[in-house]
Amino acid sequence: MDPRKPAAVGASVDTVETPALIVDLDMFEQNLAKMQAAADATGMRLRPHGKAHKTPEIARRQMGLGAVGICCQKLAEAEVFADAGIPDILISNQIADPAKLARLPALAKKVKLGICVDDPLHVERLAQAFDGSDERIDVYVELDVGMGRCGVPAGDRLVALAQAITAAPGLTFAGVQAYQGGAQHMRTHAERAASVAQAVDVVRAGRALLAEAGLDLPLVTGAGTGTYPLESASGEYGELQAGSYALMDADYARNTPGPEGAFAPALTLLTTVISTAVAGRAVVDVGLKGVTVEFGLPVPVDPDITARGVADEHCILVIPEGSPIRPGDRLSLVPGHIDPVCNLHDWIVGVRDGVVEELWRVEARGPGL
Ligand SMILES: *Cc1c(COP(=O)(O)O)cnc(C)c1O
Q1: Mean pLDDT throughout 337-346?
Q2: Dist CA 59 CA 109 (whole Å)
Q3: What is the pLDDT of residue 1?
Q4: What CA–CA distance (Å, rounded) separates 195 from 84?
Q5: DSSP assignment of 265-297, as one string?
Q6: What does the pLDDT look like over 131-159, one tens digit per residue?
Q7: By alpha-carbon position, which residue is closest to atom 10 of ligand 1?
Q8: Measured distance CA(272)–CA(114) in Å, rounded
Q9: pLDDT for res 340
Q10: Which percentage of the chain shows pLDDT scores above 90?
Q11: In CA terms, which of 67, 107, 133, 258 is 20 to 30 Å from 126?
């Protein structure tokens, strides 16, 4: 059975039950078109990241505009998107558990599937998982281009991994993933450009090492919402993995955009005021179970209101002296960071001109078992 729906299609936005994630469909469509146009203009493949929204309907819209496929961060996410009919999925992350790896051939039967590795053990276990299967998987070596998360440097380990993948039956060496996550939220264009320039140097070094070993580098995939024009212009990357651009969040809104301009703040969290008992404050009906704070407190859309704190079930807002806000009033907040916030909700409500036009299920939500 579907979880409780916050709204009915065709109803006024005033009837949406809160807390609810609201997408302004005009802004959302504008964001999708802007990113696809940028990819097309620079000859890049666009493979939007699905971890941001975890919503197959959004992925279908992205594919409809020309995306080549999507990225997922977790196997469980990829399985949901595959079942929803998305035909081409890159798991832009490592999987180490043999029991999870054993699920990959069945997934590769449904979709064109890719995955990242940064350890010979990954390659060995992937090869075991695909041994005896008719399916194949595209394997990308993840390069650490400065983020310090997963990935190997441009050095011997890169070459050894590419060779091991090439030698393994069932595995195809498809390229490298070079995502500089650390650059995405640097505030100025100049800082982001300097960071991506370093990433591009690592990619170039990796390409040269692979060439010395007689290996071609078929594709470099990476980039995010904060930096995609830089990777596009580098001459090294062939595929963009941006994800947040579709919905955006308050932290991305703090970036000073480059010449490409900003994406529109399409996602807001609609809340209801439950208490104004303390003068100068309004308490709304969402807390940490519906909004997260790792990239800062949610930002009220009304510039006269600021968030003061978020507890389990309450968000405390500071309102102007003498404000007419009363219990039952509704206030919209922009979440600090969309990915974990979408993950907390079952539905995204698509609104245009004050009317609920769509109700999208956040089907791939959860920790990714
Ligand atoms: C999160 C992520 C992205 C997308 O970044 P955004 O900032 O959401 O655009 C792309 N690639 C990888 C590997 C990621 O982890």
Answers
A1: 98
A2: 20
A3: 77
A4: 36
A5: --EEEEEEEEE--STTEEEES--TTT---TT--
A6: 999 999 999 999 999 999 999 999 999 99
A7: 241
A8: 43
A9: 97
A10: 99
A11: 67
**Which residue has 């490298």 as its token pair?**
176
Residue from 89, 95, 179 to probe ligand 1 pocket by mutation (most atoms less than 8 Å from CB): 179
| CB contact at 8 A, 277 and 233 | no
Q: Are 278 and 340 in contact (CB under 8 A)?
A: no
- Which two structure tokens, joined as six digits, stand for 147? 């983020």
- Strands 299-300 and 330-334: what pairing? antiparallel
In tens, the pLDDT along 83-135 reads 999 999 999 999 999 999 999 999 999 999 999 999 999 999 999 999 999 99
**Cα 243 to middle of ligand 1, angstroms:** 6
Strand-strand pairing, 88-91 and 70-72: parallel
For ligand 1, whether the C-beta of 53 sits within 6 Å is no
What are the pLDDT digits (tens) for 206-242?
Answer: 999 999 999 999 999 999 999 999 999 999 999 999 9
Question: What is the number of the ligand 1 atom nearest to the C-alpha of 244?
Answer: 8
Q: Beta-carbon neighbour count of residue 85 at 10 Å?
A: 12
Distance CA 319, CA 344 (A): 26
- Nearest of 238, 331, 229 to residue 276 by alpha carbon: 331
| Ligand 1 lined by 56 (C-beta under 6 Å) | no
Rg (CA), the chain: 22
Q: What would the DSSP string read from start to end of 141-185?
A: EEB-SS--SS-B-SSHHHHHHHHHHHHSTTEEEEEEE---GGGTT
Residues 6+ apart with CB under 8 A from 222: 145, 177, 178, 179, 180, 199, 231, 237, 239, 240, 241
The answer, yes or no, to whether residue 2 has pLDDT greater than 90, is no
**Amino acid sitting at position 182:** G
Which is nearest to 231 in space by CA: 31, 37, 29, 45? 45
**Which residue's entry shows tokens 């998987």?**
137
pLDDT above 80 (res 189): yes
Average pLDDT, the chain: 98
Distance, in Å, from the CA atom of 349 to the CA atom of 356, rounded to the nearest integer, reads 7
Pocket flag, ligand 1, residue 234 (CB < 6 Å): no
